[in-house]
């Protein structure tokens, strides 16, 4: 075995040269790795005894792509394209042996080899679009030449992983070999190739798969149209489409140049910087400085759920999906039956869409133990309550749980606002209590706020974080504060949205501005969706807000076809005259002279107070880092990932500008806009708040 450098080895097994890449954790294609590959291939080519070359990776995976940390920095030679040229030009067959995930540059590397063999558990994909770029090493040119334009469009614009089985069916993998024996089987495959005497197969020379799409721009137009909603606001998907179209229409070398030019433009864009930031931010969120990664966690074999309503049912589904049994407790049989029926309906809908088999539906349903007695939670390792949002109710539940739960069981509240320390204080074991705040719909939204109380034990936090990952959530550790991180910032936006409609804007103006900014919907459309009468009763109505006035005349939101908006039978919303009258009337009653409000003011007044609150959360130590706040907004509220999150967005505008705007608003609108001390200081020092 020859060490080419620290991360690449070359060895020969009879007539087969074997190149092994070993750069933990994921064999990302750093400059050192690229140089090593090129050199190893050149040596193997020069070795007359070697008749074929196998390229394989050590560790948990084949290459997971370009080294993302290198993007945006001065490029280092050799480029991946130069390495690919060496491989593709090799006069002997080069075979990529794939396990784990061949992603991005990793798959592009494999595409420049002459053959690809893989184990059945391997997956591959071109996830660059998720980083705001496109595959810039020939991926958009080579992939369609194997799988055709339509499949390539789908794979490249979604960034989705493809299983080995599907990859083999598409011709992307030439052969699947037994699990656990990849190296030997790849060598055997190489021997077969030599024995067959088949000419070298270069992907760049293939035409059969792309020929049918040539001269048919309608294929691409149709694809754009079909995905318009999904791609809204993003720059990279359009570039991906253009590059695939170039693969179909242009000679290979020209296509490569076209792809490269698009790549250069995207990689320097604000969107890509934001999306790369989000990639690392998500991984950072898993790290808690005073709780080491190897902290032992408690075993969670059974979960107890108190409440089978929308939240309780949605939360339960996460555990059922992961194969964890759940005991669901309700106060009466009707509520329990309704809850279970909703879970079943959700699963059956997934089955109808082909995402689940009916057998899986039954398997998941069988993991539920329905109950009407809290005592049945005695054997649960974790109990989560999702009952009415009132401190007294929560305290009563936790007092009972304290007497029921087995020693070492974790007791969690799904409260959205309430003080976890107060809830924990009614138990004899506050160290076992924490918040696990899921976001609606809880089986869909990725965010889990893990609320660490003053007395929560470290292993309890570690367990909740690990469990979050196990059930496919992005867990973010936050401190106790009214509304924690997400809802605390949301309240700021809500207050301003309400003020804006009193001062001169209409709900649809506010919603339009925030939707155009990239959010899925604005606050008033959101309120209609959630139901305006949440927490409202005729007795407690003050009649002082538009929302209350709407409830008083039975406008309850989407569910009865009228709220801030009027809805038709397809739930299409149109601005309501009635709402407008109510708002004008309220403004008059409050003695407000309405004025025209610009879109810019709407945006700033909705977003800047959120940024400001984020800075306050940071300065109070209620979030571990600014990027955690951004992850909360990206995964829990649909903040557009191409804007990085509220804190990252503040940096893209310029903190000094944000501070100046807040100060100006504070003068006319009052202390709600007073900039946080941390924001002012960070701006003065010329630093970035998203790096705090
Ligand atoms: N470049 C640089 N670092 C990378 C990387 C890349 N392409 N891919 C992963 N890493 C790092 C992660 O930041 C993480 O570092 P940390 O432990 O210091 O936080 C570490 O490798 C492990 O990654 P993680 O995502 O936590 O592991 P996983 O097993 O859950 O997932 C992958 C592995 C490969 C599926 C996942 O990391 C991934 O999707 N990577 C990005 C692939 C990609 O987009 N490639 C295209 C680039 S052109």
Automatic annotation (TrEMBL):
Residue span(s) of domain 3-hydroxyacyl-CoA dehydrogenase NAD binding: 303-478
Top EC class for this record: oxidoreductase
Pathway: Lipid metabolism; fatty acid beta-oxidation
Gene Ontology molecular function: (3S)-3-hydroxyacyl-CoA dehydrogenase (NAD+) activity; enoyl-CoA hydratase activity; isomerase activity; NAD+ binding
Keywords: Fatty acid metabolism, Isomerase, Lipid degradation, Lipid metabolism, Lyase, Multifunctional enzyme, NAD, Oxidoreductase, Peroxisome
Catalysed reactions, as listed in the record: a (3S)-3-hydroxyacyl-CoA + NAD(+) = a 3-oxoacyl-CoA + NADH + H(+)
Record-stated family: In the N-terminal section; belongs to the enoyl-CoA hydratase/isomerase family.
Protein name per its UniProtKB record: 3-hydroxyacyl-CoA dehydrogenase
Organism: Saliniramus fredricksonii
Lineage of the organism: Bacteria, Pseudomonadati, Pseudomonadota, Alphaproteobacteria, Hyphomicrobiales
Gene that produces this protein: fadN
């Amino acid at each position: 075995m020859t060490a080419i450098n620290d991360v690449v080895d070359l060895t020969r097994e009879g007539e087969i040269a074997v190149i092994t890449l070993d750069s933990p954790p994921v064999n990302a294609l750093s400059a050192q790795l690229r140089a090593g590959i090129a050199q190893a291939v050149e040596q193997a080519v020069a070795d007359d005894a070697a008749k074929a070359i196998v390229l394989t990776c050590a560790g948990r995976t084949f290459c997971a792509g370009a080294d993302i940390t290198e993007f945006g920095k001065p490029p280092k030679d050799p480029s991946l394209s130069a390495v690919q040229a060496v491989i593709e030009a090799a006069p002997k067959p080069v075979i990529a042996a794939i396990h784990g995930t061949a992603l991005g540059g990793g798959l592009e590397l494999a595409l420049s080899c002459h053959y690809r063999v893989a184990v059945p558990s391997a997956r591959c994909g071109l996830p660059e679009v998720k980083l705001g770029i496109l595959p810039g090493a020939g991926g958009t040119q080579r992939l369609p030449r194997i799988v055709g334009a339509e499949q390539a469009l789908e794979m490249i614009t979604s960034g989705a992983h493809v299983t080995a089985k599907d990859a083999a069916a598409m011709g992307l993998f030439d052969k699947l070999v037994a699990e656990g024996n990849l190296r030997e089987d790849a060598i055997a495959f190489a021997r077969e190739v030599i024995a067959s005497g088949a000419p070298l197969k270069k992907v760049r020379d293939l035409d059969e798969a792309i020929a049918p799409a040539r001269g048919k721009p309608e294929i691409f137009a149709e694809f754009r149209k079909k995905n318009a909603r999904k791609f809204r606001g993003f720059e990279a998907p359009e570039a991906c489409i253009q590059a695939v179209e170039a693969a179909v229409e242009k000679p290979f070398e020209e296509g490569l140049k076209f792809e490269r030019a698009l790549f250069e433009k995207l990689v320097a864009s604000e969107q890509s910087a934001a999306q790369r930031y989000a990639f690392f931010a998500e991984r950072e969120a898993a790290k808690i400085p005073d709780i080491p990664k190897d902290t032992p966690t408690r075993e969670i074999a059974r979960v107890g759920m108190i409440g089978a309503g929308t939240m309780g049912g949605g939360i339960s589904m996460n555990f059922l999906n992961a194969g964890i049994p759940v005991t669901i407790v309700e106060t009466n049989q009707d509520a329990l039956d309704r809850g279970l029926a909703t879970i079943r309906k959700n699963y059956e809908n997934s089955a109808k869409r082909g995402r689940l088999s009916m057998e899986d539906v039954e398997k998941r349903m069988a993991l539920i133990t329905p109950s009407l007695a809290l005592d049945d939670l005695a054997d649960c390792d974790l109990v989560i309550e999702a009952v009415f949002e009132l401190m007294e109710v929560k305290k009563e539940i936790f007092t009972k749980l304290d007497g029921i739960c087995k020693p070492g069981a974790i007791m969690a509240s799904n409260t959205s606002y309430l003080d976890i320390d107060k809830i924990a204080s009614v138990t004899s074991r506050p160290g076992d209590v924490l918040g696990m705040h899921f976001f609606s719909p809880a089986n869909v939204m990725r965010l889990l706020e893990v609320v660490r109380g003053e007395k929560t034990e470290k292993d309890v936090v570690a367990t909740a974080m690990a469990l979050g990952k196990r059930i496919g959530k992005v867990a973010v550790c936050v401190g106790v504060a009214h509304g924690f991180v997400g809802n605390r910032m949301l309240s700021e936006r809500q207050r301003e949205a309400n003020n804006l409609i009193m001062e001169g804007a209409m709900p649809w103006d506010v919603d339009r501005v925030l939707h155009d900014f990239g959010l899925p919907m604005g606050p008033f459309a959101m309120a209609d969706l959630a139901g305006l009468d949440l927490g409202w009763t005729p007795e407690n109505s003050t009649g002082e807000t538009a929302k209350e006035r709407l409830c008083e005349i039975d406008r309850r939101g989407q569910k009865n076809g009228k709220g801030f908006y009027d809805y038709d039978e397809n739930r299409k919303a149109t601005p309501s005259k009635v709402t407008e009258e109510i708002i004008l009337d309220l403004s008059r009653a409050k003695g407000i002279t309405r004025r025209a409000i610009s879109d810019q003011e709407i945006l700033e007044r909705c977003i800047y107070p959120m940024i400001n609150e984020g800075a306050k959360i940071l300065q109070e130590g209620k979030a571990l880092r600014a990027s955690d706040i951004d992850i909360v907004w990206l995964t829990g509220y649909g903040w557009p990932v191409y804007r990085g999150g509220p804190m990252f967005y503040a940096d893209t505008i310029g903190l000094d500008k944000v501070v100046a705007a807040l100060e100006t608003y504070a003068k006319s609108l009052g202390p709600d806009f007073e900039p946080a001390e941390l924001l002012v200081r960070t701006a003065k020092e010329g630093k970035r708040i998203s790096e705090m």
